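Appendix C: a fully annotated inverse folding record. The material below is reproduced so that readers can follow the format used throughout the book. The structure is listed first as tokens, followed by the designed sequence.
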């Protein structure tokens, strides 16, 4: 059985054309919105290079099991003390790439590195990766994924060949997620990951809380009980930030179209502030209940 990727066929063709030309670029920057399958595509391309496109082949099984000697994956690690992903990728996470690429390929072909979530690299890790990109060994391919290419070092971006992805079409979305309600599919904007993420809002509790805050309602004691409950849930805070951020962005866009530029600027600034609250809370493991209160205050 061959590994299947939904959508992104133009990006796959671009890669295959480069590969067949015999002049494959050593680094590919796969960018696009969260949840649209950037890492899935990276692994799909890695399988092509490592002879593992057939999932039932020896190479295919090793890639699936994470035991292929010529494939290294770098991503945010789990913090065992906190039971959640760390806020950033550090230089110690990136250091194994150097030794990996300077060893002979175990199967005599390509060596492939996948860095998933490039925007999570801290400054030292980004500089370490940049040095690797400047002098890559032969028969090396790096697939770097990011949801925020604008935050990356310009020098890092300039050393990569871009593969910019967009959301999946309705047919691919429905083929992947046949049981997700249509209302959620419309709000997912072609992102299967976002659709599954939004589906976690059981009974629409989080969406209702955001809507009331946006309407200027004063949140009573019962609402703050909900806030406390959301803070305890693994994705509660992220879900609220996502829904509120989308609403603020919609207001900014609507105000701009209406010619109300001061309001548009205000909404855009609030969306930026929300992003900072979310980033700092997740990176430094701050109190989620207090972070939710700060986020909801931006709605008024």
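Designed amino acids, in order:
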């Amino acid at each position: 059985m061959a590994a299947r990727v939904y959508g992104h066929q133009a990006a796959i063709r671009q890669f295959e054309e480069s590969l067949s030309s015999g002049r494959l670029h050593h680094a590919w920057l796969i960018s696009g919105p969260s949840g649209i399958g950037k890492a899935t595509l990276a692994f799909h391309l890695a399988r092509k290079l490592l002879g593992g496109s057939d999932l039932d082949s020896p190479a295919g099984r090793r890639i699936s099991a994470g035991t292929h000697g010529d494939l290294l994956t770098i991503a945010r690690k789990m913090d065992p003390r906190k039971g959640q992903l760390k806020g950033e990728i550090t230089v110690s996470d990136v250091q194994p790439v150097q030794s990996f690429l300077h060893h002979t390929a175990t199967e005599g072909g390509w060596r492939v590195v996948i860095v998933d979530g490039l925007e999570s690299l801290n400054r030292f890790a980004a500089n370490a990766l940049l040095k690797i990109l400047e002098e890559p060994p032969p028969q090396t391919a790096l697939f770097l994924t990011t949801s925020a290419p604008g935050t990356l070092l310009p020098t890092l971006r300039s050393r990569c060949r871009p593969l910019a992805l967009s959301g999946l079409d309705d047919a691919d979305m429905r083929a992947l997620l046949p049981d997700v309600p249509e209302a959620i599919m419309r709000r997912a904007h072609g992102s299967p990951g976002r659709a599954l993420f939004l589906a976690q809002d059981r009974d629409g509790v989080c969406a209702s809380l955001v809507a009331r805050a946006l309407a200027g309602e004063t949140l009573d004691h019962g609402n703050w009980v909900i806030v406390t409950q959301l803070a305890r849930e693994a994705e509660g805070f992220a879900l609220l930030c996502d829904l509120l951020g989308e609403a603020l962005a919609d207001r900014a866009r609507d105000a701009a179209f209406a010619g109300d530029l001061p309001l548009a600027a205000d909404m855009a600034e609030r969306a930026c502030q929300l992003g900072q609250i979310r980033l700092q809370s997740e990176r430094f493991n701050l109190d989620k209940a207090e972070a939710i209160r700060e986020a909801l205050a931006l709605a008024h």
